[in-house]
Every structure is written in structure tokens, then in C-alpha cells.
Design goal:
single chain; about 280 residues; alpha/beta; Rossmann fold; about 45% helix
Amino acid sequence: LAGYVNTGGITEVSKANLPGQAGIALIAPLQGDQSIVGADNFFPFRSGYPDEVAALIKEAVSTQKKKVAVVYWNITFGPAMVKLAQEMTKQQSLNVAAWVPIDATAQDKFEPIMKEAVAAVVKASPDAVIMLISGRYSLEFIKQIKNSEAVNAQLYAMSIVPPGDVVKAVGEAKARGIVIAQSVPYPFSPTLPLVSEYQKLMKQYAPNEALSYSTLEGFVAGKITVEALKRAGRNPTREKVLKALYSMGEFDLGGVYVNYSRKARRGWGTVDLTVIGPNGKLLR
């Protein structure tokens, strides 16, 4: 199973250890939660959420932010990432003026919960906000904060916040300057052989489709899957494909590497920071 996309579904698949029990390889799922992709027979590509959070905190420190708010939810990656953020901000002496929780389990109270969260951030008067949320919660938070007294606070988001959706939610002018961590290589510039190959094939087979992180990630999932099938030999089976993946070692995708073995299954392991620039375009 390659390129699986569904946070709730993949969480349950991991908990139930379905790939392990059924002997199925799960290749390059769109998931950065290490507690999930660390399960049996998961072969990740994208960097983990901890890598993203670490990069965002490091950026806040390096740009000398004096007063930060951290907004987080209580589902999926939220609890683990806020714990990590608490440890890292303390280690790096980053002043957190407010830890703002969002109860994402009470979806019937979405509007008052979001208003309360924004009010807490505004009260703290931060010069930056690190968002450990996604989906409609992140978009609504950005929309409200950009129409509040904290409009000038630097916003930091994780890779699971699509920049296109942000631009649609608040417009190009208000989206400009938002920093988004990326756990997949930058798809818009052919500086890497992997990206050059991806762009060439997109132009050939999907000329009307825009380049994006999601299509590049899908392309990578396909490359890893094809390589595993080749190594599995004729008449591939679940067992042969798994054996091929576990013995793959360091595999060069085109200037970008994964490393799979029985001891460890490592994906890209790097995080890029991007910013929404003029006209809603994502820049490095």
C-alpha cells in the first residue's frame, strides 16, 4: 500500500498492527507521527512531526522572537508535539508567554473554542505563534488572528497546513509571510535530480496539473514501490516485497535518500522552511 492518506485511518491501521499481521508493506504514507510510522512494516519517506516542530522552534530562536504563543490541540499528534515543544523551548530559552489548548474532540463547540483560543493569544501579545494544529482548526485560527490585535504576530505552521488553503481562507495579502515547515523536498525548483525527474514527468503526463508537495510525495512513493517490486523479482508476493524493502539499505531517489533495514527505517529526515510570498506563492 503506497502513499496512504488518511490520518484517522492510518492511526487505526497502526494501532491494530494490520500491516504487521497481514505481512503488507505500507510505503511512504502521508503521516509524520513517529508513533504511527514506527509500527511494523511502515516504510516512511517524509520527515517526522518532531523534526518540523524542532525546525520551527529553532527558527523562532534564530530570528530572536521574544514572546511566543504555542497553540495546540488534544488529538492525533497534538499531545506528543506540545510535550516536545515544552522541552525544546525550555532547552533553547525561548520565552513562551502562552500555551493555548484547543479541544478538537468537542466539534459541536468549534466556534466558541476557536474564539477562546484566539482571545488567549491576543491577551498574551506575542510576536510569534507556533501552531501545532491542522485542518479547519488551523485555517480558522489564521483567519481570526489576522483580523485581531495580534495581526502582526509571525505565524509558524506545520507541513499539514496547505498553503493554498491558507491563501483561500485569508487572501494573498494576509497569508503573506506565514512560515510553513515542509517535510518533503521543494518541488518548484529542479535543484535536485529527484525534483528534475518529477517535473519532467509531470510535464509529460500531467501537463495541466500544478506542481505540489503532495504530487512529489506521491511520485516518491511510486519510485520506492517500483524499486521494491524490481528487487522482489518475478512473481512478487507480500513476503518478497517486504524482504526487498528491509534489505534495501540506503537508496538514492535522486539526491534524496531513504534507508531501510531491520534495524531502522529512515525517510528523508530533513525539514525545509518555506514562506508564503507575493501572489500566494510558496518561497524558500
